[in-house]
Amino acid sequence: MTSLLIPVDAYLVESLPTVWFGVVMFSLAMYVALDGMDFGIGMLYATRDDHDRETLLSAFGPIWDANEVWIVAFGTTLLAAFPAVYSRLLSEHYLLAIAIVMALLMRGVAPELREQRDEPEWHRRCDQLFVFGSTVTPLLLGTLVGSWIFGTAVFSLPSLLTGVGLVALCLTSGAAFLAAKTSGPLADDMVRFGTLSTAAYLGGVVVLLAVVYWLNPANVRALLVTLPAAAVVLASVGFGLGGIAAARQGRHKLWFGTTFGLSFLLVGLVATLLYPTIYPASGLTIDAVVVSPLALNLTTILGLPVLLLVLWYFKFLYGTFAGPVDGEGYST
């Protein structure tokens, strides 16, 4: 019996770096899916009148702050398991990281500042700040991730296209969420916006991959034509087209589910391109930069239960606010 247990234990220990790479990517996917939805609502905010804007704020107000937990989870898990990647990613993109924080700050404080004065001009300025922060944050975040996975300069064409693609995906997620939470003309408008942004996102993915294929080194080209990468791209097209069909049929909750899938597929493509070379710019692999076995074991024992608790909390939160919404808040 002992001889059988030892190889299994050894295999589990050797697999922990890959497991934690998966945890890091999962945290990033949850952030893209959930806070990306918030960004999309913030962008759509610019298209509505005052009454609809109150409805938009009511729709994601109770879950907004909670969704931001996942960017903290992403940074924490990356630091805990792969500190060298964390330090390189931030130090080599320092100004971009600061700009992302500032854009998040603008988005966060604008609705609060809006309530401090009952002046039309003040409201207009705060609304502009809110929309600006909601648009610029995913653009810069996508640019940073594009620079990371492709090993290119910050404002290279592949990096910028990644940022633009993330903006389109956020718009799709926000529109689908609002369509599922509202009804009437507002929901109809969200279907129209969401259909256009889905088409833009799918087209942007194709353009991005074509650009990367022709501009990047041979090893990146080889990754793009592998079975996992091809499967992710084809699945994204399927989810996107399925979402458009569900939206037009009025099946808005299913549509929102497809946007969730699109977010996970996007990060799945990121994971495919980063594994096992987790920092392409310097050629660092997962096994080379992972923390010591003792630290990784302790992180696993202490960290994974916390992650499960967070997931349970999100299930409870979204279950509590699962109903429709109007200008006054969620219906009971």
From TrEMBL:
Question: Pfam families from the entry?
Answer: Cyt_bd_oxida_II (PF02322)
Give an example GO cellular component term for this record. plasma membrane
Question: What main location does UniProt list?
Answer: membrane
Q: Which InterPro entries match?
A: Cyt-d_oxidase_su2
Q: Which UniProt keywords apply?
A: Cell membrane, Membrane, Transmembrane, Transmembrane helix
Localisation per UniProt entry: Cell membrane
Give the bilayer topology. Multi-pass membrane protein
Q: Where are the transmembrane segments?
A: 20-46, 67-87, 130-151, 157-179, 191-215, 227-247, 254-275, 295-314
Name of this chain's protein: Cytochrome d ubiquinol oxidase subunit II
Give the organism, scientific name.
Answer: Halohasta litorea
Its ancestry begins with: Archaea, Methanobacteriati, Methanobacteriota, Stenosarchaea group, Halobacteria
